[in-house]
Amino acid sequence: MVKLIGFKKVNTAVFISGAGSNLRSLIKFSLLKKSPIKINFIVSSKIKAKGLEYAKLHKIKKKTYNFKNISFSEKVLLKELEISKINLICLAGFMIILSKNFIKKFNGKILNIHPSLLPKYKGLNTHERVINNREKFSGCTVHYVNSQLDAGKIIMQKKVKVSKKENPQSLKEKILKQEHQIYPKAISKALTSL
Question: Which pLDDT score, from 0 to 100, does residue 1 have?
Answer without folding.
Answer: 29
